[in-house]
TrEMBL record:
Highest taxon, organism lineage: Bacteria
Annotated organism of origin: Pseudokineococcus marinus
The name this protein goes by in its record: Peptidase MA superfamily protein
Region named Disordered: 361-394
Length: 444
């Protein structure tokens, strides 16, 4: 009999909190700083200051939607914290949804925690740091926004840095179009934090271990999670500010093109391709656009091949984890594997392999979409499953495991492809194997 009596007050306060958050969302969309602060505990000075800064920054971001949903109760407050706030204080688990105008076709989603207090019979927000929260860049400092022709850059870094990233992002988008086609949102959101601490918080990491190896990352929903809207979400490119001081102009171009390729491939995909295929394809697009060949961009790996220490297996997911070890050899190896597919089996087959592994059907704007010969290699003939479209997802299909996708698309199995890749690496290293040449896809 006791449980229902306890549940009613919780339901009532959740309903009251939802009304408060609805009012907060309306104020955010209206750029109404006073409206947001009216919903904050007057005694929470530091939180009020952060909220004012956040809303002022969001006024520069072209938001199409912003809403909250109360999910449930968050972690219990420590007794001393609760005593300081008042006995009625509690932490709410909240889901934030938003869309950036001209970019997002489904909601971006974030987990947030809000500490809620009662003052004079009215519920107010007192903090957002008493439970787990995934911040956005506007939660970390004063943000500025620069819009390019194909890029929206949002960051706490100085404006000249944001302007540089916008120019690089615009050029990167054109290079991606040239290889992947135009069937993707074609506007990239680039996030530029001001320092390493902000980068760590944006990525939800405990520390910066290994991030010195990473110039930028693409972040987004797990396509295979089944979460609502995950398959249609548009990823963000997050730049490591420390890398900007190290990379030259060409290096920055390569990095932004690589990450923009991920954004394009993952847009509308039902699953993420295996890491070696995903990273290798992004490297191929980036280096091709920059005019760099293996003798320059994969020199360290080829030296290992010449010394008899070359890789014998395609890179695994762990090989790309900067917290585990050095990642550069994995990226080079993946690039050369994708290069083998491109040279031996052709560009159309490479694109179809990426689509098959990610569960994305060829559509209008993809290379060869209107070409009968290209359609012969399309979803039906490659064995990709039934289509499944949702809002913003584009045309999705059931992704194929690589062990099935490789023979169906390339006409050879994964072991043969691995052998071809090793032969081509040996040839590039000058170890005596013949240079790969384009074939009809039979692995010869």
């Amino acid at each position: 009999m006791g449980a229902p009596a306890e549940a009613a007050p919780a339901d009532e306060r959740s309903t009251a909190l939802q009304r408060l958050l609805d009012a907060r969302a309306a104020a955010v969309l209206a750029h109404d700083v006073d409206g947001v602060l009216a919903l904050v505990d007057p005694g929470a000075a530091a939180f009020r200051e952060r909220q004012e800064r956040t809303v002022l920054g969001l006024a520069r971001v072209p938001l199409a939607a912003w809403s909250y949903e109360v999910v449930g109760e968050g972690p219990r407050l420590a007794e001393d914290r609760r005593a300081a706030l008042g006995g009625s204080a509690w932490v709410a688990d909240v889901r934030l949804r938003y869309r950036v105008d001209g970019v997002d076709v489904v909601d971006q989603q974030r987990q947030r925690s809000f500490t809620v207090v009662e003052r004079g019979g009215v519920w107010l927000l007192a903090d957002d740091a008493d439970g787990p929260s995934r911040p956005d860049v506007w939660d970390l400092g004063a943000v500025d926004v620069v819009r390019g022709s194909r890029t929206l850059v949002v960051g706490t870094a100085p404006r000249p840095v944001l302007e540089q990233q916008a120019a690089l992002g615009d050029a990167a988008a054109e290079r991606v179009d040239a290889v992947w086609g135009t069937a993707w949102p074609r506007t990239t959101v680039v996030v530029v934090p001001d320092d390493a601490d902000q980068l760590v918080r944006l990525l939800g990491r405990e520390d910066a271990a290994g991030l010195d190896q990473v110039a930028a990352l693409t972040t987004g929903a797990d396509r295979s999670s089944g979460a609502p809207g995950a398959a249609g979400a548009v990823d963000r490119v997050v730049v490591n500010p420390a890398a900007l001081d190290v990379l030259g102009e060409l290096g920055r171009e390569v990095v932004l093109t690589h990450e923009t390729t991920h954004v394009a491939v993952r847009a509308g995909a039902a699953a993420d391709p295996p890491p070696w295929l995903s990273e290798g394809f992004a490297e191929l697009v980036a280096y091709e656009g920059a005019g760099l060949g293996p003798d320059v961009a994969a020199a360290d790996l080829l030296a290992e091949v010449r010394a008899g220490r070359g890789p014998v297996a395609l890179p695994s997911a762990a090989d790309f984890d900067p917290a585990v070890g050095t990642v550069a050899p994995a990226y080079s190896a993946a690039w050369l594997a994708v290069r083998t597919v491109d040279l031996r089996h052709g560009r159309a087959a490479l694109l179809e392999l990426v689509r098959a592994a990610s569960g994305r059907a060829a559509g209008a704007g993809d290379p060869g979409a209107g070409d009968p010969d290209a359609r012969d290699m399309g979803a039906g003939d490659s064995g990709v499953g039934d289509t499944d479209a949702e809002e913003g997802d584009g045309l999705r299909v059931a992704p194929l495991p690589l062990a099935d996708a490789v023979p169906r698309v390339l006409g050879v199995d994964l072991d043969v492809l691995t052998a071809q890749w090793r032969e081509d690496m040996a040839a590039l290293a000058g170890a005596g194997a013949p240079e790969a040449t384009a074939t009809s896809g039979d692995g010869g």
